[in-house]
C-alpha cells in the first residue's frame, strides 16, 4: 500500500537536528524518521531520558530547533516525537546499532513483535 513519502527536505532537516543535538549536548540514544501508518505520517522519533519530563524536554527541543540556521531548514516541533529509551519501539530497534550520523533505511520488518513499516535511522546506540 502506498503511503506518504519521506522527502529529501525532511531527511536533511533530520540530519541537521541530529548535528545540533550533538553540538548542544542534548542527550539522546536514537533518532530516526518513523512512518505511522494509522496517521499516514512520518515523525522524527528521538529517544532521550529527557522525555521523562515532557514540558522541559519539548521546551529544550523548541529552543534547539529555533537555533538551527541552515538554509531551507523547515522542521517543525510537531514533526518530532520524544520517547524514553525504554519505549517498545526503541527496545525493538536495539538490534540495529548505528553511531555517527547515517541514513539506514529499514522497511517492512517485524522485530520482537513490533512491525516497522518504514523507517530511516540516523543514529541508534540504545
Specify the overall morphology: globular
The whole-angstrom Rg is 14 Å
Strand order of the largest sheet: 3-2-1-5-4
Number of strands: 5
Put simply, the count of helices is 3
What helical percentage do the residues reach? 25-40%
Uncertain residue segments = none
Structural class: alpha+beta
SSE run: HEEHEHEE
| Largest β sheet strand count, sense and barrel closure | 5 strands, mixed
User: Averaging pLDDT over every residue, what do you get?
Assistant: 92
Give the SSE map:
Blueprint: H1 8-24, E1 30-36, E2 41-47, H2 54-66, E3 80-83, H3 88-92, E4 104-111, E5 114-124
Parallel strand pairs: 2-3
Antiparallel strand pairs: 1-2, 1-5, 4-5
Describe the structure.
With 126 residues, the chain is an alpha+beta fold. It has one domain. Helix content is 28%, strand content 29%. It has a five-stranded mixed sheet. The radius of gyration is 14 Å and the shape is globular. The relative contact order is 0.23. The mean pLDDT is 92.
How would you summarize this macromolecular structure in one to three sentences?
By secondary structure, the protein is α+β, with helices and mostly antiparallel strands. It has helices at 8-24, 54-66, 88-92; strands at residues 30-36, 41-47, 80-83, 104-111, 114-124.
Give keywords.
126 residues, alpha+beta, five-stranded mixed beta sheet
